[in-house]
Specification:
The chain has 126 residues and is α/β, with parallel strands linked by helices. It has helices spanning 20-30, 79-88; strands at 10-15, 35-39, 42-47, 50-56, 71-75, 93-99, 105-110, 116-121.
């Protein structure tokens, strides 16, 4: 790591106010993430020292026009079971669960704003 940078504190995904409810509901209800903080126009999830937040910003309008500019990877222990559960909740995968040459498994989908997300199952010992 570069001197002075101790790690990644988290990721903040901006959306417009009119789209916030759909974004919040997707991450909480569809993905089943448990909020650390859940306030009007801001929801935050935490895993150890890493956080994912969804909030509104007046400079953001509409869906993401370049969904591959950023990608949020969410770790899972059983990608097949998680993908089946999410599909039952309406998630449409653009890439089904597939094993990568390095041994991990990945599946890809989008949130309501068109941001790319992946489930990532790392191989044992990785």
């Amino acid at each position: 790591m570069t001197e002075g940078i101790a790690g990644l504190a988290g990721v903040l995904v901006w959306t417009e106010a009119a789209r916030y409810a759909a974004m919040r509901d997707f991450y909480v209800d569809t993905l089943g993430l448990k909020p650390r903080s859940d306030r009007p126009k801001f929801v935050n999830f935490e895993w150890g020292e890493q956080r994912l937040s969804i909030s509104t910003h007046e400079g953001v309008t509409g869906a993401n026009e370049d969904p591959l500019r950023q990608m949020i990877n969410l770790t899972v222990s059983d990608i097949q079971a998680t993908a089946i559960a999410l599909e039952a909740r309406g998630v449409q995968f653009s890439r089904p669960p597939e094993q990568e040459p390095w041994g991990g498994w990945i599946t890809t989908f989008e949130d309501p704003d068109g941001n790319t997300l992946q489930l990532l199952q790392t191989p044992p010992g990785a």
